[in-house]
User: Fold these one by one.
Assistant:
Number 1:
Amino acid sequence: MRLRIILLVLAISSLILVSFLVPLALLLQTFAADRATSAATAQAQWLAPLVATLKPADLSLAIARVNAQDSQETTTVFLPGGQRLGVQAPVSDATGVARTGSSVTRRVAGGEQILVSVQGLAKGTAVIETFVPDSKLRQGVARAWLVLCLIGIGLIALSVLVSAQLARSLLIPLAAVARASELLADGDLTARASDTGPPEVRQVSRGLNRLAARIGELLAHERETLADLSHQLRTPLTALRIDAESLRDEAEMSQLTSDVDALTRRVNELIRAARRPSASGGRIACDAAQVVRDRAAFWQPLAEDQDRFMAIEIETDWLPVGVPAEDLAACVDILLENVFAHTPEGVALGVRLARRAAGGGWLTVADDGPGFDNADLVSRGSSAGGSTGLGLDIARRIAEASGGSLTIGRSPRGGAAITLALGPTAAPEETARRPGRNGRSKHWRHARPADARLSTELAEWSAIVGHDVNA
């Protein structure tokens, strides 16, 4: 944009200068020619009285003195008897016209002729002819044109400098507004545009700042509302705990009380998560290996109770990803809960975590169940199993917030396979590989992802698993 403004000002100033300097240059040329012609005419008129009073010898000396003063101009006097004094110029048609008593100025090759008629002589009419060459007519014109060109170049350079400063005064505030909008798009709601620049830019900055403040207020209100709604669950939980403690069976009371406590802790976590401000730039790192290991250990007793074979494969003891630990734990719980809720008891499942070459990790949960018959399960509120339809959408949004993605496919036995690509952390040094054991399971086979957009990542995943996922 700066270049366009400079080019626009350059074009306008060039047109103005050309329309001004070209006529001025032509006027200077005409003025120089008129000045030389007027000087030659005045000189001829000065000689006219001398022609009428001096003898030919004296007149010849006067003409020689005049020619000596200016080597460029030549003066000739044609006397009535045919005698020529001064420069021996040829008799032309204009000389005959001047003998009739008319003074003549005409253009000839190489300059101009000025002929002045001198009447009142005894033998007839004399003619004074002065030749002014082109060099005399254009004297000083080239220098004047050079000065005009230098003035024009200086004015153009000045216009370029002024336009550059003007563009700078416009673009710097606009660049600040653009940076603030990019920070807001990245989730930094504290970013504000500086209130500087022209009035229009300041108006845009103030509008963007008001929008950012309003978004922050709306998000804060949403978090508080969600926290209030989650807090309202404590009342029925308290009543449920009182009912559980009133049970006479000690084992049932202990089990039910434990379940109520777990649910209470989960509600407290929801309240804290709801009141947690949004991330303001950068990705929060957590150890995905530890989170997946803990959540798999939490769900494994249920798998044993339902007679499910559960393969857990975690390639490394340390795998930092750009997802908060609470969000990643929620993702693992969502994926495992879908398996337990929507597949019959006894169906095997597997959890696998591996490192991505681009940073971050791969998290895959697959089963040997009936699989998905709806390709649009990730859409918010879409469910074919009677659930809320929010789980996979939550997992997808968490993965995409880290710079990753979610892919739904089928396992080799026809079951479901959900793969989360978890993005890296903001700090590269946090992703340094730490020494750890390799815990690959011999019972693991990867599912076939269905999203062709991730072909590059699928090739990388195929190399990790050891077989072609697109086969």
Note: Residues 2-53 form the longest helix (52 residues).
Number 2:
Amino acid sequence: MDDACKQQIDEAVNIGADLLEQMHKDGVAHVIWMGFFYIGGLEKAVDYGSEAVIEACEAAKIHCEVADLRDLQIPRGWDGVHPTEEGYKMLAQRIWDVKLDNDIPI
């Protein structure tokens, strides 16, 4: 992972943080921010990005919880990046668990 990679991650997280601010201004009460899952060779980038997402969520004015995916083994499809149907179900389950664990209404 080089500086260009960190810069891309930082820019993406900053966009997310700006969205959290806008959602707060718009009256949104709760957000679940889905983190990243590991893909071979990108572990350092995933850790860096996940920690940045956690920090942005903690700093937000809005109630923000992170669905950290790093402990999941997400099955991926033909391209090696996007989850299979089973993988998407695992992501949805993690989001649902965060919702339940934090009493987030729908």
Note: The domain at 3-101 is CATH 3.40.50 (Rossmann fold).
